[in-house]
């Protein structure tokens, strides 16, 4: 392991981001690649609320020029993930307590609607995918990064199974805001197993084409997640 003094000399962004590989850029622009990497880093808590986003360091760390970094930062700012801080620097946005309550209120409505529509419109392949994602979630014990990624995939799959383009667009924006919460409720004792049970209830209702139960299960899941977060803070 490198001495502490050497680790500290490495730029912050370099320790949080890895350079692009050829495969990373094969099917997307450099701007899209940078946007996705930074968004994921914020989602996973590698960049936290109020932390400065250093443009030059990010370009160096990802092995791209500063132009795609600027484009990605502009998109992140438009989506509310970063904001202008002291000295006109760009920093990761932070949510007030009232914003968190408002966010969960909208999340309950939107994810409940997504589950209801999914119960009506999901095809067999989408239901099978939901079950496979749940199986993967249950396999990843304490791997916080994998759990966060799989949880996002699970909720995204329900949204896509709803087959409503306007709902997908709206939920995309809301999920960006959820990234700013930064804490992982899976770390709360017993929350992990309860979340798995709640997820199974949603998918079982979708598979039975029970729209009322699917919506109620999704709403209950969001309310429990909010309650857990409030108790953990």
Describe this entry's structure for a reader.
- This protein is an all-alpha fold and 233 residues long.
- Helix 6 (97-121) packs antiparallel against helix 9 and helix 6 runs antiparallel to helix 11.
- The chain contains eleven helices and two strands; from the N terminus they run αααααββαααααα.
- The chain has helices spanning 4-9, 12-16, 30-43, 55-62, 66-78, 97-121, 124-139, 144-161, 165-179, 191-207, 211-232; strands at residues 82-84, 90-92.
- The two termini are 34 Å apart.
- Strands 1-2 form a two-stranded antiparallel sheet.
Short précis:
This protein has 233 residues and is mainly alpha-helical. It has eleven helices and two strands; from the N terminus they run H-H-H-H-H-E-E-H-H-H-H-H-H.
């Amino acid at each position: 392991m490198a001495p502490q003094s050497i680790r500290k000399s490495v730029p912050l962004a370099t320790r949080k981001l890895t350079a692009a590989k050829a495969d990373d850029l094969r099917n997307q622009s450099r701007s899209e690649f940078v946007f996705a990497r930074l968004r994921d880093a914020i989602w996973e808590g590698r960049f936290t609320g109020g932390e400065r986003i250093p443009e030059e360091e990010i370009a160096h760390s990802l092995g791209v020029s500063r132009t795609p970094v600027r484009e990605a930062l502009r998109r992140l700012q438009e989506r509310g993930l970063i904001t202008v801080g002291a000295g006109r620097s760009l920093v990761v946005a932070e949510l007030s307590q009232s914003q968190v309550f408002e966010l969960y209120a909208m999340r309950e409505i939107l994810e409940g609607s997504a589950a209801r529509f999914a119960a009506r419109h999901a095809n067999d392949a989408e239901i099978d995918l939901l079950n496979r994602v749940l199986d993967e979630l249950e396999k990843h014990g304490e791997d916080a990064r994998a759990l966060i990624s799989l949880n996002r995939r699970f909720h995204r799959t329900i949204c896509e199974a709803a087959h409503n383009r306007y709902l997908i667009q709206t939920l995309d924006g809301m999920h960006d805001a959820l990234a700013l919460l930064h804490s992982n409720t899976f770390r709360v004792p017993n929350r992990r197993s309860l979340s798995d049970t709640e997820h199974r209830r949603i998918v079982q209702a979708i598979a039975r084409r029970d729209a009322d139960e699917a919506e109620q299960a999704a709403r209950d899941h969001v309310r429990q997640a909010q309650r857990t977060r409030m108790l953990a803070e």
